[in-house]
C-alpha cells in the first residue's frame, strides 16, 4: 500500500498563499438542484473532489446500476433524487458504504409514496429505487443521525404534489449549519422555505435561475479544507497564510474556524481577496468544544489540541461513527500510539487528558479517511517528519492537498 513521508524543517516560519478547492458541500447540493431545474445554468469553481466528480458522473449516467463508492453524500442525495425521477435504478457502494445507515431516509421517502426496496440488509444499501411522484404533505424524520438525510429530503421537496411540505425534525438536530446551507441555496433558486424550531416548510415550486447573475453560480472555496491550514498556522513557529476567496458571510458553517482558532493562538483578518491567518501567542492549556454543528472539524481540532500538548474535551461526535470510518475509534488508535493519554470515551465524546503528540514508531493509518490523513500530515510541522499510509485518500475532498503542502515548504515523498 502506498505511503507518503512528509517533512517540514523544524522552526521554519510558514508563509504561503493557498487557493482552496470549491466547497464540496455547496457543489453537491448545486448539482442536485441543477438536475431538478428546468433551466440550465453554469456552475463555476465546482469542487473537483472525488465525491463531487462521482455525483457528476452518476447524474449523467444512463446505466441502471450505479455505484456511489464511498461517498455518503452521493448515496443519500441520489436516493432521494431517483425517488422522484422517472425510471428504475439500483444503487450500491463500497463495503464501508454498505455498513452506513440509510434507513431513516428510505423509510421517510416510502411514507411519502416512494418505491424503494433494500436489496440486502434492511436499513442499509444497496437499494432498488423506482421513481415516481411523491404526494405527502408532512413527514417526521430523525435528524440526529445525519443532516444529509434532511438535506436529501429538502432538495426534492419542491417537486412534491402538495402545495406545502412540512418536515418535522425529530431528536437532537446534528450539523444545523449544513441544513441552513441547503435552505439558503434553495431560496437562491426561487424556492420558498421556512424553518421554525423543529419544523421546516417547503413550498411547491420549480427551481429557477432568475436570481443568478449571467446565469452563473460561483461556488465558494471550501472552509472545511481551510482547517488544515489553521492547524499549520498554530503549529508553526511563525505563520502568515493567505487563503484566497474565503468570505466572512459564507454559506458554510465551518467558517466558525476563524472564531475557534483564536483559542489556539491564530487570528484571522478578512480582506477583499480572502483571509490572512497569523500565529500569535497561545496561552490556553485546555479546550472544551461541542462539535455537533461542525463535525468535519473535530478531527483537525482534536489532533491540533494533542500536537500542542493541550488538554481537550470534544463532545457531540456521534455522527463520526458512521463516516468513512468510525472516526472516534480511529482517532483514539492513532493518538494513543503517538503518546497521548485519553480518558474513556463516554457519550460520543473524546477527552485528551495529557501528553504531547510525538512521531509514532509506525506510520499513521488513514483508515481510508481523507480528514485523518490531512490532519496528521500537517503535524510534520511539529515533529519534523511523519508517514501516512494510503495518503491519496485526500482526493475525496482536497485533491491538490500535497501540491499545496509542497509549495508551502513541505517535502512530500511517495513510496
Could you explain the architecture of this structure?
The protein has 415 residues and is of the alpha/beta class. It has two domains: 3-21 and 221-414, Enolpyruvate transferase domain (UDP-n-acetylglucosamine1-carboxyvinyl-transferase, Chain, Alpha-beta prism); 24-217, Enolpyruvate transferase domain (UDP-n-acetylglucosamine1-carboxyvinyl-transferase, Chain). It is 30% helix and 24% strand. It contains 13 helices and 21 strands. The protein has helices at residues 24-36, 50-59, 72-83, 103-111, 147-156, 176-188, 223-235, 257-260, 298-307, 327-336, 370-378, 380-383, 401-407; strands at residues 3-7, 14-18, 42-44, 65-67, 87-92, 115-118, 127-131, 138-142, 164-170, 193-196, 199-203, 216-218, 239-244, 266-270, 274-279, 286-290, 311-315, 341-343, 350-354, 385-389, 411-414. The strands form six sheets. The chain has a four-stranded mixed beta sheet with strand order 2-13-15-14. Strands 4-5-7-6 form a four-stranded mixed beta sheet, covered by helices on one side. Strand 16, helix 9 and strand 17 (311-315) form a beta-alpha-beta unit. Helix 1 (24-36) runs parallel beside helix 3 and helix 3 runs parallel beside helix 5 (147-156). The radius of gyration is 21 Å and the shape is globular. The model has no long low-confidence stretch (mean pLDDT 94).
Amino acid at each position: 500500500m502506498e505511503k507518503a513521508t512528509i517533512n517540514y524543517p523544524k522552526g521554519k516560519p510558514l508563509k504561503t498563499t493557498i487557493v482552496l478547492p470549491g466547497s464540496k458541500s455547496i457543489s453537491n447540493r448545486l448539482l442536485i438542484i441543477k438536475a431538478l431545474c428546468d433551466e440550465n445554468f453554469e456552475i463555476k469553481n465546482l469542487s473537483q473532489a472525488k465525491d463531487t466528480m462521482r455525483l457528476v458522473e452518476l447524474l449523467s449516467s444512463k446505466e441502471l446500476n450505479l455505484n456511489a463508492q464511498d461517498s455518503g453524500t452521493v448515496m443519500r442525495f441520489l436516493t432521494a433524487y431517483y425517488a422522484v425521477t422517472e425510471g428504475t435504478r439500483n444503487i450500491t457502494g463500497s463495503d464501508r458504504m454498505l455498513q452506513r445507515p440509510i434507513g431513516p431516509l428510505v423509510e421517510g421517502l416510502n411514507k411519502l409514496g416512494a418505491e424503494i426496496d433494500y436489496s440486502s440488509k434492511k436499513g442499509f444499501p444497496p437499494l432498488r429505487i423506482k421513481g415516481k411522484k411523491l404526494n405527502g404533505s408532512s413527514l417526521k424524520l430523525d435528524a440526529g443521525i445525519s443532516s444529509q438525510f434532511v438535506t436529501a429530503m429538502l432538495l426534492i421537496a419542491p417537486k412534491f404534489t402538495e402545495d406545502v411540505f412540512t418536515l418535522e425534525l425529530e431528536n437532537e438536530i446534528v450539523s444545523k449549519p449544513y441544513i441552513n446551507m441547503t435552505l439558503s441555496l434553495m431560496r437562491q433558486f426561487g424556492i420558498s422555505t421556512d424553518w421554525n424550531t423543529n419544523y421546516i416548510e417547503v413550498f411547491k415550486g420549480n427551481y429557477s435561475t432568475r436570481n443568478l447573475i449571467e446565469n452563473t453560480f460561483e461556488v465558494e472555496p471550501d472552509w472545511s479544507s481551510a482547517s488544515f491550514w489553521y492547524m499549520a498556522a498554530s503549529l508553526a513557529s511563525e505563520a502568515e497564510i493567505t487563503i484566497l476567496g474565503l468570505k466572512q458571510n459564507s454559506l458554510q458553517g465551518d467558517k466558525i474556524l476563524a472564531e475557534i482558532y483564536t483559542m489556539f493562538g491564530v487570528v484571522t483578518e478578512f480582506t477583499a481577496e480572502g483571509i490572512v491567518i497569523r500565529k500569535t501567542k497561545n496561552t490556553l492549556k485546555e479546550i472544551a468544544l461541542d462539535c455537533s454543528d461542525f463535525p468535519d472539524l473535530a478531527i483537525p481540532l482534536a489532533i491540533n489540541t494533542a500536537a500542542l500538548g493541550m488538554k481537550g474535551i470534544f463532545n457531540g461526535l456521534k455522527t463520526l461513527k458512521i463516516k468513512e470510518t468510525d472516526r472516534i475509534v480511529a482517532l483514539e488508535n492513532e493518538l494513543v500510539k503517538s503518546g497521548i493519554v485519553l480518558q474513556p470515551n463516554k457519550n460520543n465524546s473524546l477527552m485528551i487528558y495529557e501528553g504531547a503528540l510525538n512521531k509514532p514508531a509506525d506510520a499513521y493509518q488513514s483508515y481510508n479517511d481523507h480528514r485523518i490523513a490531512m490532519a496528521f500530515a500537517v503535524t510534520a510541522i511539529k515533529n519534523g517528519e511523519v508517514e501516512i499510509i494510503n495518503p491519496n485518500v485526500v482526493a475525496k475532498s482536497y485533491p491538490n492537498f500535497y501540491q499545496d503542502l509542497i509549495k508551502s515548504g513541505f517535502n512530500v515523498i511517495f513510496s
